[in-house]
Amino acid sequence: MSGERTPPLLLRGGRVIDPGRGLDAVADVLIDDRRIAAVGVGLGTPDGATVQDVSGRVVAPGLVDVHVHLREPGNEDEETVASGARAAAVGGFTALCAMPNTDPVTDNQAAVGFILRQSLRAGGAQVHPVGAVSVGQRGEQLAEFGEMVGAGAVAVSDDGRPVVSSHLMRTALEYARTFGIPVADHCDDPTLSAGGVMHEGLVATRLGLKGIPAAAEEIMVARDCLLAELTGGHVHLCHVSTRGSVELIRRARERGARVTAEVTPHHLSLTHQACEAYDTHAKMNPPLREEADVDALRRALAEGVIDCIASDHAPHAYDEKEAAFDDAPFGVIGLETAFGVAHTELVCGGVLSLPALIARMSTAPARLFGLPGGTLAPGVAADLVVLNVTARWTVDAGRFLSKSRNTPFQGRVLTGRALATIVSGRVVHEGDPAPGPA
Amino acid sequence: MSPALGKDLIGLEPLSADDIRLILDTAEPFKEVSERPIKKVPALRGKTIVNLFFEASTRTRISFEFAEKRLSADTVNVAATGSSVQKGETLVDTARNLEAMRIDMVVIRHGSSGAAEFLGKRIRSNVINAGDGRHEHPTQALLDLLTLRDRHGRIEGLKVCLVGDVLHSRVARSNIWGLLKLGAEVAVCGPHTLMPRGITELGVTVFSRIEEAITWADALNVLRLQLERMETGFIPSLREYYRVFGVTLERLERAARPLTIMHPGPMNRGVEIDSRVADGPHSVILDQVTNGVAVRMAVLYLLAGGKPELADAAKRGAGAPGGTTE
After folding, report:
1. Which of A160, A228, A347, A424 is deepest in the core (most CB within 10 A)?
2. Hey, how many other C-beta atoms are within 10 angstroms of the C-beta on A35?
3. Can you tell me the distance from the alpha carbon of B128 to that of B109, in angstroms, rounded to the nearest whole number?
4. How, if at all, do strands B126-132 and B105-110 pair?
């Protein structure tokens, strides 16, 4: 972030969508001094301004992903803060939250500071560190939330693992309340899911793979809802995958519990049938479920019972996924496909309006985690995205800026992608990121 | 490569009823080879086959080896213990190294479901699944089908019940597919802790009580109960298992007609099956073992490109796989 002043940028004639302010109209957006200077019809061009005609395009607050695994420190061959931040920018994200299950675990203020420093050097999407709930994510002793928040952590989570002890989860919720941050939980009862590699159901039975029952997630969702009520703390449920979880969340919210939830693009679009032929790119935790679960998740997202979409971007090396299904690690990448998949499945599929999708991918996640962005209100930092919502493109993992290739969407034709991503007034992604060989 | 079966035999689920009948019919002439003083025909002369066993096996490995040798193939056995697999070599590297040695066929047993398919997709050699995790064990089911057909003269309309640990059993899955495709009625019986989710959606009846299963069935295929199932909490004790689900003489004597008794081996006598039943007049357990060699000869012969109608000729020592194309 150099102090030099870039010339003002005028985005002229786009469809400007700002769900937080109920705005959806053709307008101009003026960016000056790294901030949104004005949004309006027929804005004049200030001296020295760059004018970009974005008619036919959508201008929206930058997308925000509250659930991303960068592999730095520890597995930099799979992803670094820099490569993840660049991949996010290509995907239209201006901010992301980096989960703490690195090696070593991000469970102290120094580790949080390291992630932030790497983010400042990277210059893609802004990276907001999430600290661990427990020291070493071992589920025993609370990590130092206060110092981590002081160093820049925006939430705590032991994601990758559940917080198994109900007592620890209770104290985490109470303690996190002190600092006004959410506790993001990966809901999974390990005594039920141990050894499981995919959804427990007919496909697992046929393939002879050990299943993970929906109840393994729902038991922990129910517990977390009860603890949120008990403590008044904010529990954020990661990657909800079952229709039963949706109902539990709905009831808890009706009772006034501070429960929020996210869902991934893959859980909104794929079922356990993607595991056919032992495709390890369909192996993730929680696993892909059934058609009825996908339908319930889509409805819940439309109704706002599930607040936001998050990618659960989980990079793995090629070798690790090139293995028998039992032996491959859980997880898929998603930063560069999240918007395309969500737009194709939900907006083109008639589940959500485009403004509602922007709300679920920008406004809501920014608000839940207390992040800057998620709005085009004049005066805020200019974090925004220009979208081409009619562009049809084919997913080609070979062209990803992520260091990993483990996507379940390889070869899919998607509609909609980010044309330009602007972080604090600086264009961090523009056009086709990596033109293919001539 | 036989167009009838494709390159690999991974399981019975992808096969048609005609494919399965073709294998069983091809096995018939090969039965006689094992009854000769000189148990050898030249059908696979010059072919090299690797038996790649990542899991311990005595019966299946020996059965494959006899089948290969009786067809005159050159065979090598690779056991996971002591091989480079234990030094951390991945399955894919093992496969590529075998490929580089120009192997014609690989018979693989592996503890992970899908391992045979994984290998088959990555090498040009024919791959035969000798058991992958809990997925399939197709040659076991084929020999079970052949034994049932020998005994009853048909499969269609036969009522067959698989008894015991269906959840962890690749033998059960392959049997279910093979029996259903050939028109048998299929049931499973055992404690619900050992029944996989959605099993009824495959078209299978579930009996909770062994007495009901015995009343219903023409044949019982009694699955081996892995002794570690007790330690992992699926059943409280072997003693209780035998008392509730054991296939005993007393229970069978109450049936209106004698039931054919099968077991894929190795048996736990007094756990899932009464010795008097296993060794009794209606047990075909050793016929299964005999048929295993013939069925595996048929599978090897067909995948190597042997023409079904030439199996008789091959038996007489006249034909090689692929007929004149060699």
Report:
1. A228
2. 15
3. 9
4. parallel
Given the DSSP bridges, would you call strands A183-185 and A235-237 parallel, antiparallel or unpaired?
Answer: parallel
**pLDDT tens sequence across B298-316:** 999 999 987 776 667 666 6
pLDDT for residue B5: 83
Question: What distance in Å separates the CA atoms of residue A407 and residue A392, rounded to the nearest whole number?
Answer: 18
Exposure string over A296-322, b if 16+ CB within 10 A, otherwise e? bbbebbbeebbbbbbbbbbbbbeebbb
Q: Residue A111 CB: number of other CB atoms within 10 A? A: 21
Interface confidence (ipTM) of the complex? 0.89
Nearest Cα to Cα of residue A352 among A393, A417, A308, A311: A308
pLDDT exceeds 70 at position B147: yes
CB contact under 8 A, B113 and A326: yes
Bridge pairing between strands A211-212 and A155-157: unpaired
CA A119 – CA A130 distance, rounded (Å)? 13
Q: Give tens-digit pLDDT for A92-115.
A: 999 999 999 999 999 999 999 999
CA dihedral of B224, B227, B233, B239, whole degrees rounded to 10: 90
CA distance B219 to B284: 10
Q: Which two tokens stand for residue B311?
A: 């199996």
> Two tokens at A35?
């901030």
Measured distance CA(B4)–CA(A432) in Å, rounded: 47
d(CA B303, CA A383): 61
Please tell me the distance from the alpha carbon of residue B200 to that of residue A215, in angstroms, as a whole number. Answer: 20
Residue pLDDT, tens place only, A120-177: 998 899 999 999 999 999 999 999 999 999 999 999 999 999 999 999 999 999 999 9
Percent of chain A with pLDDT over 70: 97
Task: Say yes or no: A277 contacts chain B, CB-CB below 8 A.
Answer: yes
Among candidate residues B85, B135, B137, B128, the one with its CA nearest the CA of residue B108:
B128
Contact B223, B171 (CB under 8 A): yes
Distance CA B298, CA B30 (A): 7
Whether A201 sits inside 8 A of B198 (CB atoms) is yes
Query: Which pTM value belongs to this model?
Result: 0.93
Catalytic annotation, residues of B: 59-60, 87, 109, 137
Number of other residues whose CB lies within 10 A of the CB of residue A63: 35
pLDDT value of residue B321? 47
For residue B324, is it left (φ>0), alpha (ψ between -120 and 50) or beta? Answer: alpha
Answer whether B118 sits within 8 Å of A324, measured CB to CB.
yes
Chain B touched by A292 (CB under 8 Å): no
* pLDDT the model gives residue A6: 81
Q: What is the dihedral of CA B24, B27, B31, B37, to 10 degrees?
A: -170
Q: Work out the percent of chain B whose per-residue pLDDT is above 90.
A: 79
pLDDT for B307 equals: 74
| SS3 per-residue string spanning B47-66 | CEEEEEECCCCCHHHHHHHH
Nearest neighbour of B133 by CB, restricted to A206, A323, A326: A326
Crossing angle (nearest 10°) for helices B59-70 and B138-152: 80
